[in-house]
Write a structure and sequence with these properties.
The protein is an alpha+beta fold. Helices cover 58% and strands 13% of the residues. Helix 2 runs antiparallel to helix 3 and helix 4 runs antiparallel to helix 7. The longest helix has 18 residues. The relative contact order is 0.17.
Length: 178
């Protein structure tokens, strides 16, 4: 649950950190999102935005910086409260139809979760505190592989994205980092 809230804070619907930094503060995009693609044993964090070609390097660096910030810093009480309100409030919409309920059951079975967790979703969302929300970092980003990935992205961002280089091909208008 803490990872869901962290991703919502980073790049969920409405006001989020990526939108704040990339759109509000810098005017580099019309919007930015972050998602989590989960698999049974692992998954990916993904950030997306549309930006001008000449700003793509800066945008990618800022996205990586925000991923790092989410890993290192405790989320604010306001960010957490907003993310919790969204997840808890949006959940009933994910079980409005028989098909939607069936999908929730299939997901629970696939991930080996007890079906009772569907009934206690809102309570589990609201039980997350700023302290427990930071616990996801050790479990999710504390693995050597994840640290290596973060380090590689940081090295690439410093080496390639901070300076213009005529030998590199021009980036596209869509900046996606996974």
């Amino acid at each position: 649950m803490a990872v869901n809230l962290a991703i919502r804070i980073l790049g969920g619907e409405g006001s989020n950190r990526l939108h704040q930094v990339l759109r509000t503060e810098r005017g580099l995009t019309y919007g930015a999102q972050a998602h989590m693609d989960t698999l049974k044993q692992s998954g990916d964090f993904k950030a997306e935005t549309n930006t001008r070609s000449d700003a793509t390097g800066v945008v990618l660096k800022l996205i990586v910086d925000e991923f790092w910030r989410l890993q290192r810093e405790r989320v604010s009480d306001r960010e957490l409260a907003d993310a919790k309100a969204y997840l808890a409030g949006n959940f009933p919409l994910t079980i409005e139809t028989p098909d939607a309920i069936a999908m929730q059951v299939v997901n629970a079975v696939f991930y080996g979760l007890p079906l009772e967790e569907l009934q206690s979703f809102r309570e589990r969302v609201n039980a997350v505190s700023a302290t427990t929300s930071s616990a996801w970092r050790g479990r999710t980003c504390g693995r050597t592989g994840c640290r290596s990935c973060w380090s590689a992205m940081r090295r690439r961002s410093r080496r390639n994205w901070d300076r213009p280089d005529s030998r590199r091909s021009k980036p596209s208008n869509s900046a996606t980092w996974t």
